[in-house]
Amino acid sequence: MLGAGYFLVGWWPFDFRPANQVRWLPDRPGLLFENRGLAYDPNPLPEVGVNSAAKSAAQFTIELWVTADCEPGDRVSSLLTVHHPRSVADLMLCQWQQEIMLRRPSERPLALGRFQEVGARGALQAGAARFITVCSSDGGTDFYRDGQLAEQFPGFRVLPELLDGQLILGADAAGKHTWAGRCFGVAVYERALTPSEVATNHALWMHGRAAALTNVPGLRALYRFEAGSGSHPADTSGQGHRLFIPSYFEPLHREWLIAPWNDLASRRLNYSDIIVNGLGFVPFGFCFFLSRQWGSRREKLRHSLRVIFAAAVVSCMIEIIQAWLPGRISSLTDLLTNTLGAAFGVLLVLCFHHKLHVAES
User: Fold this and answer.
1) Least enclosed by CB within 10 Å: which of 155, 184, 236, 256?
2) How far apart are CA 91 and CA 141, in angstroms?
3) φ and ψ of 127, to 5 deg
4) Distance, CA of 106 to CA of 9 (rounded, Å)
């Protein structure tokens, strides 16, 4: 019964196929992404970055016209992801508090975490419409806010193969880092735009003339969201692509038992979450061990190991199933903290029993 209670808490509310919370804006072109929603292109982006394959970095520009609903400080939310099934990690444009960040897989496999990131602070205030442009080339990565240069990172380059993937809006490929807000337009180019081009494009979007962008060299995807209905927003760049808005929130890629160094890098260090996961399994270790009969030191050790192993098994089952629950993360970090919490519960019983034994004698 004790284990069943932990399964109930760990898997609640048992919603394995929730509705995809993406809908068309009623008053203007655009999509509304709520707490759990995504739209994605079933096919890879058309040849973005391929022309720069012989160089050390991809040449690309991403334009996003968005309004964030909040400024999340306890997690990173993914506005745009380029997902490749065989990639260790994806290229992502994320929000953290008011910062817009570009994340790429780490170039040092042995380094802590899967990502390296740069960003522009103060670019995404909640409730304010912002036009974000990110240009990347051999010279580095530049961020523009409303057509004006915001930040420059000369040493931050992106490998061309990271642009060879599916475009996802509103979440990452695992569906765990969802973003809430309004998206009015997206454009992707296979080259880095010049500062004057960035300003010109911003003006075209703001004046309702984004259709003129089809003449801009290097355009590879253009979503203006003018249809107002349907499940397939069209790409008007001439490349023949289209997004798909599924009825149910089903991630493109599921992750099981994310390693601690990757888990913490992805979610930022959350001490409260670690403490809660540890303390949550203290009653498991305490009650389970207390219910067993033991006397000698050998029996204590044997029962202690059994209880800790049982806690690890229960936690592992919870974490594996959580990979299928949107909004939950299957984390090896949680498994470890749960197991340590159960071990601490066992230790409390031993200390409590020792004090009673001393008092009685």
Assistant:
1) 155
2) 13
3) 85, -5
4) 35
Burial 280-295 (b: 16+ CB within 10 A, else e): bbbbbbbebbeeeebe
How many other C-beta atoms are found inside a 10 Å radius of the C-beta of residue 172?
28
- pLDDT at position 326 is 72
The domain ranges of the chain are 2-10+257-360, 19-223
Nearest residue to 75 (alpha-carbon basis) of 93, 91, 57, 96: 96
What is the pTM (predicted TM-score) of this model? 0.79
Does the domain at 19-223 match CATH 2.60.120.200? Answer given as yes
Name 140's bridge partners: 137
Q: Which residue has the tokens 């003018």?
A: 226
User: Hey, what are 214's tokens?
Assistant: 């089809």
- Residue 329 to residues 20, 255, 276, 345, Cα–Cα distance (Å): 18, 8, 15, 25
* Per-10-residue mean pLDDT, the chain, length 361: 65 78 96 94 74 67 97 89 81 95 77 77 96 96 98 93 91 90 97 97 97 94 95 92 92 74 54 81 88 75 90 90 76 90 90 56 45
